[in-house]
Amino acid sequence: QVQLVDSGGGLVQAGGSLRLSCAASTRTFTYYSMGWFRQAPGKEREFVARISWSGSSTNYADSVKGRFTISRDNAKNTVYLQMNSLKPEDTAVYYCAARLYSRNSYDYWGQGTQVTVSS
After folding, report:
1. Which long-range contacts (CB under 8 A, 24 or more apart) does 42-45 make?
2. pLDDT tens digits along 85-98
3. Whole-angstrom Cα distance, residue 12 to residue 16?
4. How far is residue 96's CA from residue 84's CA, in Å, rounded to a whole number?
5. Which of 15, 34, 47, 84 is the most interior residue, by most CB within 10 Å?
6. Are 53 and 30 in contact (CB under 8 A)?
7. What are phi and psi for residue 99, nearest 5 degrees?
8. Strand partners, 99
């Protein structure tokens, strides 16, 4: 069982930056690739970014490529999402998620953190 705690959300003006954090309570953090997802009001949850267990491989949604950066610190059991050049359409609840190396789906989810970008 893995518990994930998201933090770092808030209210920011368009063009601003935020850094989200996700702390994982597990002794086997490196068994998991990690992802960030978001859900805006009235919309389905969508993929934002993912990072491999070692941090050597990352993927991004086209909508955030070049603006967001996912990273992880395995010594701290934490994954980050640096968000720059934020736009109003980035407003959503952001969730981190963990996927065990042998699985095809994300099994563990954080509680979510609200990001609101004002125009």
Report:
1. 43/92, 45/95
2. 999 999 999 999 99
3. 6
4. 18
5. 34
6. yes
7. -125, 120
8. 33
Q: How confident is the model at residue 72 (pLDDT cuts 50, 70, 90)?
A: very high
Q: Report yes or no: 20 and 110 within 8 Å, Cβ to Cβ.
A: no
111 touches 21 (CB < 8 A): no
Distances (CA, A) of 66 to 23, 85, 106: 24, 9, 24
**Residue type, position 57, single letter:** S
What is the enclosing helix (H) or strand (E) of 92?
strand 92-100
Pinpoint the alpha helices (H) of the chain: none
| 2, 98 contact by CB (below 8 A) | yes
